[in-house]
Model the fold of this input.
Amino acid sequence: MIKNLIIPLLAASVLSASADEAQKAKLLEIGKANFATCMACHGADGQGLAVGDKKMAPSLAGSSIATGDPAVFALSVLKGIQKDPANLEILGVMAPLEMALDDEKLAGVMTYVRNSFGNSASVVTPEDAKKFREQFKDIKAPVLRADLAKTAAAK
Done:
């Protein structure tokens, strides 16, 4: 009797895990292909493209923005980040990518960054990306890093 209950539960669990891994693999593939846009500033290795002793963009390796709350990361990717005049180490600005990335590509890039360069974080699904796009639709300009901290604190 118990055997008849356990085997279907185990099978369902294996199938679910297999589907999750397949979705993650697909998102990683999409993300890697679309990360090319990000490489211009973050570099192919995610360490931030060096310009002399400064960088165009911060490292994505171990980034609390990239690996923390996915909504905060989505806000930065969708709307971009303004230049912080107090930070002279980073030369560039984060360009808003909401028009360049549909929900699947946004989810892919976020999942790729969150699981590359030594990072390990949860998958972002296209459904999550759609939710984030809706959540931040009224923001019309790149945000300040302080806005990202406020978004994280509000959660």
